[in-house]
Prior knowledge:
About 80% of the residues lie in helices and about 0% in strands. It is built from ten helices and no strands. Helix 3 (about 30-55) packs antiparallel against helix 4. It is elongated, with a radius of gyration of 26 Å. The termini are far apart. Keywords: Ion transport, Iron, Iron transport, Membrane, Metal-binding, Transmembrane, Transmembrane helix, Transport, Vacuole. Homodimer. It is a multi-pass membrane protein.
Amino acid sequence: MSDEISRGFVDPEKQSLLNHHTEKHFTAGEIVRDIIIGVSDGLTVPFALAAGLSGANASSSIVITAGVAEVAAGAISMGLGGYLSAKSEADHYERELKREQEEIISVPDTEAAEVAEILAEYGVEPHEYAPVVNALRKRPEAWLDFMMKFELGLEKPDPKRALQSAFNIAFSYILGGLVPLLPYMFIPRAQDAVVASAAITIVALLIFGYAKGYFTGNKPVKSAFETALIGAVASAAAFGIAKVIHP
């Protein structure tokens, strides 16, 4: 195996096995995370706002105006937050990459010892990992990549990730935020529209929660009810507070 690594290729027989074996892993985790963040807040915050304004006896037109303004501001804020988060991750990776590069040049023996230590943690014996360590020392780029992944636990981020995250979160927030506002566009009296809004949004939260649980590997049914409960509590609190302040 070490000979194959040192030559930088896999023999034809093993390559044939790899070509005929397709692993079905879910690889869109970052996109799903963005959608979860955007839709979750998009469904909950405007829903609570609309319920609160309805409790204060506002008209449907006021609820729509305030709701659309909130959705716009929320989408911008959430999108910016996603952008800054992804940008910070990329900046952190670059800083650690530069530091690791300098250490490989300045203290190669120490870094090689760290490679050996990492492999030993997986139960690899000294006579087994010695050829691997030597092979990596001959390939600085592969060595650097190994240290970033296995010592620091960092994967190279997609350079487009920050903008993609901002768009995904903002767009998802808008989609989620429009759901609780739809009834107010067709029912003039807010006190009647809030009932329809609550019903539609709870159903949307149940569907979203189920999908979230399915894609994140959690129990879908439990996730559905938890998500719907959070939205219901938030809107009920907003409605109740508005009723107390503005009977």
